[in-house]
Every structure is written in structure tokens, then in C-alpha cells.
Design a protein that fits this description.
By secondary structure, the protein is mainly α. It is built from seven helices and no strands. The chain folds into two domains: about 40 residues; about 60 residues, lambda repressor-like DNA-binding domains (434 Repressor (Amino-terminal Domain)), CATH 1.10.260.40. The termini are far apart.
């Protein structure tokens, strides 16, 4: 297990993200689980320093975070399971569902309360 320190550079952050993705389903009580929890804390702290989340509607927030992580709509569809619905949501044709909010909050590390704000559909 790598020794982790405060994340200070983009490279540190990317290494932590890579490792976190490898162990994000570790079983409670295992060394990997403890490492995952530490990484979550370090990643969150690094993101808080760099990115004060702007005041935008939930869809723009999703788009910003997709760009931050290099995700495409297909990545959201893989998490949610329906490409057509993702397209409608990202184009303001359909509202976010509670299931989407839960999944996207975890995937994109956006506080769920930011995804529950009202916004106008087209």
C-alpha cells in the first residue's frame, strides 16, 4: 500500500483518483477500505481548495463536473443505464430523477443538494 500525503499537485490528485477507482468497492474493515476512506478525504480536501462549485443549475453543474473528470454522456449512461434519458436530461428536455441524482452525486462528487435545485426545462 502506498503512503498517502496531502494532495498538492494535479499529479498527486490523479494518482489518488486512479487508486480510489481501483478500490472504491472495498469491503469494510479491510486495509483497502481504510485506504479508500483516506483517499476520499484527501481528494475532497484537494477539490475544495481548487474548485469552489459555482452557482449554476444542476445540469450545468453536471456538465462542469463531466468536463473536470473527462467524462462523456456515455459514461453517465453507463452509470444510469439509459443513453436516451441522459441525452434528454443534458438537453433540458427531462428532469433529473431521484435515482439519477443519487448516482450522479456519487459519480461526479457533487453534493446531492446541488442537484435537487429547481431549473427550467425547455
Amino acid at each position: 500500500m502506498k503512503q498517502w500525503y496531502i494532495l498538492e499537485t494535479k499529479e498527486d490528485f490523479e494518482a489518488a483518483m486512479h487508486r480510489f477507482k481501483q478500490i472504491d468497492e472495498a469491503q469494510k474493515g479491510t486495509p483497502d477500505y481504510k485506504e479508500m476512506r483516506l483517499l476520499a478525504l484527501l481528494i475532497n480536501q484537494y477539490e475544495q481548495q481548487l474548485w469552489d462549485l459555482p452557482e449554476v443549475d444542476p445540469i450545468e453543474m453536471i456538465k462542469i463536473r463531466m468536463e473536470d473528470f473527462g467524462y462523456k454522456p456515455s459514461d453517465l449512461a453507463n452509470a444510469y443505464g439509459d443513453k436516451g434519458t441522459i441525452s434528454k436530461v443534458l438537453n433540458y428536455k427531462q428532469a433529473l430523477s431521484l435515482t439519477m441524482i443519487r448516482k450522479f452525486s456519487k459519480l461526479l462528487r457533487i453534493p446531492a443538494e446541488l442537484l435537487t435545485k429547481e431549473y427550467i426545462l425547455q
